[in-house]
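One thing: can you check what follows?
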Amino acid sequence: MFEQSAYTGNTKENNEAVLTQLTALLKGENNQVANLANASALLHQYLTDVNWTGFYLYNDGEQELTLGPFQGLPACVRIPLKKGVCGTAADERKTIRVNDVHQFPGHIACDAASRSEIVIPLIKGTHLLGVLDIDSPSYHRFTEEDEKFLEKYVATLIEFL
């Protein structure tokens, strides 16, 4: 079903191949947890220089994000909307790319090794489902090209949630 990828580096061809792999992993499965788990595992294996790749799921009743499937060290379990990079991206419903997390007002340090971060909201129709959160131990890790690819990744994933 899945073969470990030999793709390294975010080239257009590699990105398209990973999107194809994502679709193959999710096709025919309707369990949200399983799909998010495979999506985080595939992305964590594909991306270089990252130390955490995962999802926070939106809890409308509590107005917070709750830890979902991920790859990496244990993480914060709950993040209020408007707090940290994840809570801000969820609240504003837009991608946030941070070159130095220590310069982000209200940053929540779940892993002291993280230096940069990108968070992409998961929005289906008009409903916020959560966010994809990726951390790196390097400053300035995430580029505009990464952002575009990850937004396509999330758009593909949303089709299966």
Notes: The beta strands are 52-59, 64-72, 78-80, 96-98, 116-124, 127-136. The chain has a mean pLDDT of 92. The first strand starts at residue 52 and ends at 59.
